[in-house]
Amino acid sequence: MSRLTRRQFIRRSGVFGAASLALPAILAACGDDDDATDGAAGDGTTSGSGSGTSAGTSGRTSAGTSGGGGDGRLFFENWPEYIDPTEDGARGTVDRFKKATGLKMKYTEAFNDNNEYFALIQPLLGAGKKIEPDIIAPTSWLAGRLITLGWVDKLPLDQVPNAKNLRPDLIKPSWDPTGEYSLPWQTGITGIAYNLDATGRELKSVEDLFDPAFKGKIGMLTEMRDTVGLILLGMGVDPSTIESFDQAADAFDRLGAAKADGQIRAFTGNDYLDDLSTGNFAACIGWSGDVVQLSRDNPAVKFIIPEDGGISWADTMVMPKGAENRDSAAEWMNFVYDPVQAAQLTAWVQYVSPVAGVREEVAKIDPELAESTLLFPDDATLKRLHAFANLPEDVEAEFDVAFSDIVGA
Amino acid sequence: MAATEVEAGPPAARRVDLIGLGALLVAGALIAAIGMRLITGSLAVLATVLLLAVVLGLVFAAVAGGPDTRRRLAPYGLLKPGMLWLALFYLAPLFTLLRASLSTLPSRFAVEAEFDWNFGNYADAFSDFGAQFGRGFLYAGIATLLCVVIGYPLAYVIAFRGGRWRNVLLGLVVVPFFTSYLIRTIAWSSLLADSGPIVGTIEGLQLTGLFEAAGIIDNGRLINTPAAVIGGLTYNFLPFMILPIYVSLEKIDPALIDAAKDLYSTAGAAFRKIVLPLSVPGVFAGTLLTFIPAAGDFINAEYLGNPNTTMVGNSIQDQFLVQNNTPLASAMSFVLMIIIVVAVLSYTKLLGTEELS
Asked: Cα separation of B97 and B125, whole Å?
């Protein structure tokens, strides 16, 4: 996968024409609309090769056009490298879904950063207009914000029998207390990723990110809860207990100082992978599955949960207000919550699946993978993971201002 | 001549002039008011009708009046298309921006800012982003200077030594423009990468120490440094410097230089006294074409810089598109615009030539 195609995900001009002035859109426009998935999905208009021939795993034979209004073409907008593509003779999830149901589907990878994505949809959803995707995958805190703002619709969960497979700890989560608006896509771990060639030594703790030897070679995320959360852990503070800004002020000072003295090379969204792979970043804050995927191609790249602990998070499927293809969306959620399907997804993305029973299915595909504590955290690992506290809105505003003062341009 | 005629003319003729001027002012004010959204909805429709009436009224007055009236109104009629064009596509957006810069977001996730003469945005623009303004102008200034230093000799060689290769050489200057600006900048980020060919070559030649001493390489990295940002700006805007300088050099008659030499001038003196003064308009145009866009650029700092090298363009982009803080972003755009206008005006005063000012 080339540097450019990977960058194409940053922002898609085809999705929000109004945002086409944004620079990544210009780049995205260089590629054909359908190339952006890097072959992960192919274009929905081609409708899979087995359209109409299959009975469908859910036993339903709904034609695309009957899908709860809309044009029958399901549109899922997700983060990059977040689904198994059709490659090496194996059929990717999107193609399997299209073949199994005969539905049309468009899959894009426009998420790079939650704040950026929110800024993109805010003018539309805030003005009561619809956005194009039927399903989007914000991180839990943003999903919580969208739910509070009333910018998402309830999911058609009565049409998703497989939703019963949701992992017990994710039922009625803090960001969606009724559990009616969101269904997790993947959950995962924020830790430290490093390139052994560039560091020359193994890393252990958050403190390593502040090692003067790596001056100018450290990357951090524009995701406040990941970056500040990990620094808090490094200072011995559990981010799940944060209630006021004062409790985190020291971590912000530390971050500000590290930026000012040039320790930090860049604050990135999901685009940290290139810099990590080439060694521009000796070490950075990263997401477990991404880095494990990358280390398959580049063994020098490693991921650790630092000894101080790691951050756990969830990206969750929600349906923006007014999304049209509700039936198809229900079909999709049902499909990916089938443990057999979810296992194939997990084996590729290497994140922690929100679907119960995936481990057994993964064991059938790759027994070694089923033993990985990064994919299936055992109790000892779970004890080291902390979710960032659910901040009340006024406190969150304080955090956001302080954070954007440091990482913002 | 027209002025003396007005002075000498009867009072009626002077009034005709006032009608023309008044019509222009009314039309301009209406467009500005619509732009600032001081009048909206059905009032705006009414204003548009009024605008059309003013234009048609002027035409009617000119046609119905005698030849004398027509002659006096003609300049205003001729100005009208240009003025209205400017009002529609420049003044109206400008006023919208001005209005946004004086607005306040009523709540954190509000979409529409409310206009309330909030000058606080301007105070914030200066207090929070002073460093970015400073860096923006500093980097743009250095890049412009480098462009002159590199571009002038190049244009000189093409113009005077290019011979029949002139057009080919000029074409080669422009060829990189066939690729997107963004792609070229991102290409530099691979070339300058820590494990990339340029750092590798410098290390191979054992010159790292020298470059570190010069402040170009920082802890073994070339990219994500101020030097990379300035280099990127220089590279991207160089053709805007070369082309105007080339045009002004190309117009110089070589016979002038021959004449200088016939009068026992040295080559250096001939260049100083003849070529350089005659090419000043090109340098002047080139610096404006380079400095103004470079000062507002954000792509080079985004891809080649680090968190401490952000320019004002990055801040404006961040406030507009990531923070969704339109009022602050508009205020910053305005400040940037005003500083550039003042800078350009003083520069014009200093170096301006008759051809341009």
From this structure: 15
Does the CB of A119 have a partner CB in chain B at under 8 Å?
Answer: yes
Question: Comparing C-alpha atoms, which of A143, A65, A137 is closest to residue A107?
Answer: A137
Q: How far is CA B211 from CA A186, B198, B232, in A?
A: 46, 12, 17
What are the residues whose beta carbons fall under 8 Å from the beta carbon of A50, sequence distance 6 or more? A98, A99, A102
| Pick among 3.40.190.10, 3.40.30.10, 3.40.120.10, 1.20.210.10: CATH of A188-312+384-407 | 3.40.190.10
- State the Cα torsion A59-A61-A64-A66 to the nearest 10°: -110
Write down the ipTM of this complex: 0.75
**Measured between CA atoms, how close is A217 to chain B, in angstroms?**
9
Judge: A279–B194 Cβ closer than 8 Å, yes or no. Answer: yes
Residues with Cβ within 8 Å of residue B275, at least 6 apart in sequence: B156, B249, B252, B257
In CATH, the architecture of A3-182+318-337 is 3-Layer(aba) Sandwich (3.40)
Q: Which of A134, A72, A73, A69 is nearest to A105 (CA)?
A: A73
Give the strand pairing for A135-136 and A283-287: unpaired
Total Cβ atoms within 10 A of residue A193:
26
Mean pLDDT by 10 residues, chain B (357 residues): 43 65 80 74 82 80 76 74 78 87 89 88 91 95 97 95 91 91 92 88 87 83 91 95 95 92 92 92 93 95 92 93 90 94 88 54
